[in-house]
Amino acid sequence: MHKMITAGVAAVLFSSATGSLQAFDDRVSVGVLAGTTGAGAEVSWRFHERLGVTAQYAGGLSWDGDFDTDDVDYDGDLDISAGAIKFDYYPFAGRFYLTAGAMLPDMEANVSGRSKRNDTFEFNGATYQASDIGSLHGKLTIADGVQPYLGLGWRSSHRQGFGLFSELGVMATSIDVSLGTSENYEGEHDQFRRDLRREEQRLKDEADKLPFYPVAVVGISYTF
């Protein structure tokens, strides 16, 4: 009798689970978006009422900014683009979801620097003539390669038709700084090259105070 009851309960549970799976039709959503990584598009496949996968790409965003140290005025033009592949979890089988995955960012700034004193630079306690060095130039990389991502959002992928979607998240950064001079002074003077590497590290330490890049996205989608 006990075995018969156990088998009956298992059959009911299996039947219920199968019915739940059959009741949900997997859906594909396509959309356009804009946010802190630029403008782009996404494709999302919701293959279960609580599970889905999303691919995104956005780019074309640029920022102009400046940063000052005690001795150098820096200007930078930051270009931003990023692709992403994410796994979505809908805990309530509705619009709200949690997401995690990987982003493939390309976030680099072309940097130029000029002396505040107009005639000298000071790096790592040593003074150099601006007429010998010229100007500084280089790159500041905020993130590239593959970076982990976590976020949450809202998407109407559980039903057919047009809908709005939004997402908030954070992506890990990977800061790198490289500097050179317009007169290639570092190629001829070893001490200056070492002092310039110290300046790179100082700028990197400042940028490392932002270990995450904020990701905010809004868009319009259609679910088939």
Topology:
Blueprint: H1 2-23, E1 27-35, E2 38-48, E3 51-68, E4 72-89, E5 96-115, E6 120-123, E7 126-129, H2 130-133, E8 136-143, E9 147-154, E10 161-172, E11 176-181, H3 190-207, E12 212-223
Antiparallel strand pairs: 1-2, 1-12, 2-3, 3-4, 4-5, 5-8, 5-9, 6-7, 8-11, 9-10, 10-12
The largest sheet is:
8 strands, antiparallel, barrel
The DSSP helix count reads 3
pLDDT averaged residue by residue? 88
Low-confidence stretches are 1-22
Whole-angstrom Rg: 26 Å
Fraction in helix: 10-25%
Strand content: over 45%
Gross morphology is: elongated
Can you write the helix and strand succession as a string?
HEEEEEEEHEEEEHE
| Order of strands, widest sheet | 1-2-3-4-5-9-10-12
Structural class: alpha+beta
Distance between the termini: 48 Å
Description:
The protein has 224 residues and is of the alpha+beta class. The longest helix has 22 residues, at 2-23. The strands form 2 sheets. Strands 1-2-3-4-5-9-10-12 form an 8-stranded antiparallel beta barrel. Strands 6-7 form a two-stranded antiparallel ribbon. It starts with a helix and ends with a strand. The protein is elongated. Mean pLDDT is 88; it is low at 1-22. 20% of the residues lie in helices and 58% in strands.
